[in-house]
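help with this.
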Amino acid sequence: MQQLRLERDHEKQRAQDLKHHADEQQRRAEEHQRRVDEQTEQLQVELLRVKLELDRYKKWYYGPRADWLQSDQDVAQMLLNFAEELDCKPVPAEDPAAAAEPAEELRRVKRRKGRRNLANFENLPVSTQVYELSEAERACPCCGLTRKEIGADESWQVEYLPGHFERIQHVRKKYACTSCEMNGENPGIQAAKKPETAIDKGLAGPGLLAYIVTSKFSDYLPLYRLEDIFARQGFEISRATQSVWCGDVADFVEPLYRLMADRVRASHVVATDDTIMPMQSKGKVANARMWVYVGDETQPYNVFDFTMDRGRDGPKRFLKDYGQVLLADGYAGYNGVVVGNAITRAGCWAHMKRKIIDAEKSAPEIAKEAVERVRALYAVERQGKHASIAERLKLRREQSAPLLAELHDRLLQWKNQLLPRHPMAEAINYALGQWNELNAFSTDGAVPIDNNVSEREMKRIVLNRKNSLFVGNARGGRTAAILASITSTCRRLDIDPQLYLTQLLTNLPTLPFSQLPQWLPDQWKSHHAARHDCLQKPAPQTP
């Protein structure tokens, strides 16, 4: 009996051990499967990140620059395909228009009748060429008598005459007193004064310097191309000489540049951005930086600053003693600029939307809803585009603030649904991490919703960089910053930079420092427009 109990207990213990072993095996299998699932999920997320990165590079190189959702592009492509298919379909025979015209005439492009309206056509100088019949051609074929002139047909043509160089000889007459000379006294020789120039004893006139600076920093022509253009016009100027002249002009106008920088720092809102400006160095090209600081409407100046790296020291030095609103992207270096002072940092919704669009393929539904909510904010901005600051602020508080609250709740919900390293989760974390900065526009009617104004200026620096490749040294970067500030501000104010620079380089050598503010681009434009209106105004008629 005792033996049977022992055998029963042994079998029971053995069954429990087998069950425990089976449970342990199942637990290990589940743990292994969980690890495999986690690794698979991580690999899928990493694969998705790599695909998105590849798509981003493809877009940078081959795709459009606009930030559009792929679904929007699909709809546009469908409409385009539909229009092309509709255009290729034959017109039914019963169509009266088809019956009236032959089939081969359906797709012919007809020219518009008459001359197209050309802007400022009437302001061009006129050169008249008269065409007459010879004496033999004037003879009447019927009776042989000479035909009389009864009228003329007139037509117009626009011609372009390339620029040309001129030599200007400056002759300074000398004068002396012959009486004093005869008496053996000091004859008092005096020479007539020649107007001072921007470059002392320089060969280049103000018009030539203005043309080189405008071509380089406003039209983005590299100096070696200007060298070829000048050679075709009969006078070659080496790129090295042109480069020296640009540096001399930058040195000459630097006081005006510093005054523009002071005015920008007096703005309520300063928008800033930066981009790479390659600089020659030993071994390889150094990645220096070009920064832009855009003043608001009260201080309409665009000022560039060249630094050797992207550290915070550059913007911190430029924005020293500034204490209002800084509009910028999410670059962490700006945190060191605003810390410890009164600067309010504002964020850029265009950057936030771009992050969402870049991660669209990882979560299309989330991307679509998020972009639609951002578009609703921009719709409110379009309503208040021409409103005053107070009216725009009221509109934002009434309409934008509820939209921001709803979007914030949705961002938190989406964050909880996604893995931390998911591409869309990173875009959402960017928005949440910048949320206070992104909400700055809703509490200040003067703050723009995005930083596109400075990004547009950076694109022009990129155009110059693509053509000129790099700057030679730190002095060349400073020259580029000064002259780009002048030409960019002229473009902002719709000023002809060549005309402005020509007058500036002509008058600045003899200008007292106290009158320097009168030559700020916006002030010059006001005086120039007032003078032009005064000249155009007819003189009063005397009775």
